[in-house]
Amino acid sequence: MLKDISINLNNFFLSVSDAIDLSSPQISTHQMRVAYLSWLLAKKMKLPLERLKQIYIAALFHDIGALDPSDKLLLHRFEEKDLFRHCLRGERLFLSIPFLRPMAPIVRHHHTSWATWQKNGYHIEDPYVLESQLIYLADLVERLLDRREYVLHQTNRIIARIIEAAGQEIHPEVVDIFLDMAKRASCWLDLVSPRLYSILLNHGPLERVEIGLEDIAQLAAFFSKIIDFKSRFTSTHSTGVAACATILAHICALTEQEVLLMKIAGNLHDLGKLVIPNTILEKPGPLTPQEFAIIKQHTYHTYMILSSIEGFTQIAEWAAFHHEKLDGSGYPFGLTADRLSLGARIMAVADIFTALIERRPYRKEMSKKEVTEILKRQAQKGLLDSYIVKLLLENYQEVYTKVSEQQQIAQEKFQEYLQLPIVSMAQDNNVPHLPKQPVFLPQGPRWPRDLHR
Ligand SMILES: [Fe+2]
Ligand SMILES: [Fe+2]
Ligand SMILES: [Fe+2]
């Protein structure tokens, strides 16, 4: 019987959102800031709490479909020509997880202008229209901010631009709510505060919740796609490591609960790779010592991100110690055997095994003979746990087949995301059909008419 574990969901979402935006200093905390602004606007409109939470979660991950960090930079500089591709990908990613499915249309339409909604016969009261308009506005404000300039010196310029957007890009009443909010200096100061994370953690709309391990596993699988799809060379790596760690955990007779925790840890083990530039991840040759030094920080970030989540202590260790070696020669912590638990040892073996059977920019996938030799040598040198290596080699075919099967599925998904049609902003006159009834969203006072009565 699986026990649910209690995690701080707000903490989890904030940490992952933060990690996604770490890929470039120009966009760091972009999604968190957009979530902050959207949350404030939704609060000002007195939207029901459930609706407010959905807006907040959608905003925290609204640009999740911009897989490559260079796409994100283009978006940020208003240079992206293919604005809707990341919206479509984001929608598909949200649709793949039951927990996030209700927010998928919001993500899909966060760049849909008010004029487009109107042209297609939608009203601000229709489901998802207000939600996506709030994020549209918040996103625009955040991108208009010049990070080199003091925030309160730019508010007039930003406000003027938002006033221009009223009626065409953004519903006028949404703009009015923003103008009211923008009078408060503290909103702007919060927005750029290095303490924004704790402001949202302590005062944001999501509370500490009991969430089932199965739900966490689904969310972890979802976030593993964001990590893997960052580069085509890693497009199935976390999926493979999670599959391998799960089988090894089974073989090592871990409990059902521990096996699931291993799967979660496997899916998140390279979370810190979000910080590593693709030029290094995709380099078609061996890395220089300087480049390797940059790679070394990825497990440090995995640890820092995961260990900051309440309830994730074990997952953080199992995930982040996969480059540690039993003799203390690993990175980034240089831990020795006495600090490396069975879970961490399994993950180290799973990571190496999966990497060896994968193709890399500079080499082909390795044969069974080559993989066996490398693993045995590392075990003999006292780097990897020899018992786990022995179990893996005894079950080689089974492990290989299961890992490859899972990677094949992930690869097909990746191709699907890559092949999304290119829809330019000008072409997007057809807002796809949205449910006319708020199927997912709880009924509450409809904004703005009911509130203005
Ligand atoms: Fe966007
Ligand atoms: Fe954005
Ligand atoms: Fe790694």
Which descriptors apply to this entry?
single chain, about 450 residues, mainly alpha, Hypothetical protein af1432, about 0% strand, elongated, binds fe (ii) ion
What's the layout of helices and strands?
Blueprint: E1 5-7, H1 9-21, H2 30-44, H3 49-60, H4 69-76, H5 83-95, H6 104-108, H7 114-119, H8 129-144, H9 155-165, H10 172-182, H11 185-191, H12 196-203, E2 209-211, H13 213-228, H14 237-251, H15 256-268, H16 278-281, H17 289-295, H18 297-307, H19 313-320, H20 342-356, H21 368-380, H22 386-394, H23 396-418, H24 449-452
Antiparallel strand pairs: 1-2
Helix pairs in contact: 2-3, 2-8, 3-8, 9-10, 13-15, 14-15, 14-20, 14-23, 15-19, 18-19, 19-20, 21-22
The structure holds fe (ii) ion (FE2) (3 copies).
N- to C-terminal separation? 52 Å
Molecular shape: elongated
What is the string of SSEs from the N terminus onward?
EHHHHHHHHHHHHEHHHHHHHHHHHH
| Rg over alpha carbons | 23 Å
Bound molecules: fe (ii) ion
- Class from secondary-structure proportions: mainly alpha
Note poorly predicted spans.
422-430, 435-453
| Fourth CATH level, the homologous superfamily of the largest domain | Hypothetical protein af1432
The helicity comes to 55-70%
How many H/I helical runs? Answer: 24
In percent terms, what proportion of residues is strand? Answer: under 5%
Identify the CATH architecture of the largest domain.
Answer: Orthogonal Bundle
Strand order of the largest sheet: 1-2
Q: Kindly identify the CATH topology of the largest domain.
A: Hypothetical protein af1432
- Rounded mean pLDDT is 87
**Total individual domains:** 2
